[in-house]
Write a structure and sequence with these properties.
The complex is a heterodimer of chains A (106) and B (123). By secondary structure, chain A is mostly beta strands. Chain A has no helices and eleven strands. The chains are: A mainly beta (106), B mainly beta (123).
Chain lengths: 106, 123
């Protein structure tokens, strides 16, 4: 099983600041990685797929990078609606999610 | 309207069975692979099952294989999850999710999610 580790567990930032979230895989997943956003009481929403492609309707302030075992989700300038939990997910060997990074308001 | 609506959740005793349904609308269901994903209270996401568009392929994590079965009825635009020998640790919100790639034999990503249905396993 491929294990995904996300860091930090919590990121405390102010609106307008840049957020950098990390996801590390226990073995290479190529570029077969996605990022999701989940707000309290809501289902997750696909943000990024294949490591760096924005899903339909996702604002340009969200970007993804990386390959192999190390991946990054960057939010260039945090909007109030961006405070949420973010999960990475791999599809290289079945499907697993990381434990999540909570982005909260400082 | 493009949506997925889960149903069938509730309280069930340990060791019993429960079946969940997910009704799809607004897209060509028969072209899409489908997944179930669960989330225990206050916890992260756990993938549960995948079924390909034509039912030719089904995948499960090793931890659930043998207890959970995914199926679909393309004439009813519905995907199902049959759960047996339920345990307290199966307590979670169960989401169905649409796969992001049409006609795929193996899953890709989850690009449409339902609102979930809560399953509580307790005596």
């Amino acid at each position: 099983e491929i294990v995904l580790t996300q860091s930090p567990a919590t990121l405390s930032l102010s609106p307008g600041e840049r957020a950098t979230l990390s996801c590390r895989a226990s073995q290479s997943v190529g570029r077969s990685l996605a990022w999701y956003q989940q707000k309290p009481g809501q289902a997750p929403r696909l943000l990024i797929y294949d490591a760096s492609n924005r899903a339909t309707g996702i604002p340009a302030r969200f970007s993804g990078s990386g390959s192999g075992t190390d991946f990054t989700l960057t939010i260039s300038s945090l909007e109030p609606a961006d405070f949420a939990v973010y999960y990475c997910q791999q599809r290289y060997n079945l499907f697993t999610f990381g434990p999540g990074t909570k982005v909260d308001i400082k | 309207q493009v949506q997925l609506v889960e149903s069938g959740g509730g309280v069930v005793q340990p060791g019993r069975s429960l079946s969940l349904s997910c009704a799809a609308s607004g897209f060509v269901f028969s072209n899409s692979g489908m997944h179930w994903v669960r989330q225990a209270p206050g916890k992260g996401l756990e993938w549960v099952a995948f079924i390909s568009f034509d039912q030719g392929n089904r995948y499960y994590p090793d931890s659930l294989k043998g207890r959970f079965t995914i199926s679909r009825d393309n004439s009813k635009n519905t995907v199902y999850l049959q759960m047996s020998s339920l345990r307290p640790e199966d307590t979670a919100v169960y989401y169905c999710a649409k796969d992001s790639r049409d006609y795929a034999d193996y899953g890709w990503y989850f690009d449409l999610w339902g609102r979930g249905t809560l399953v509580t396993v307790s005596s």
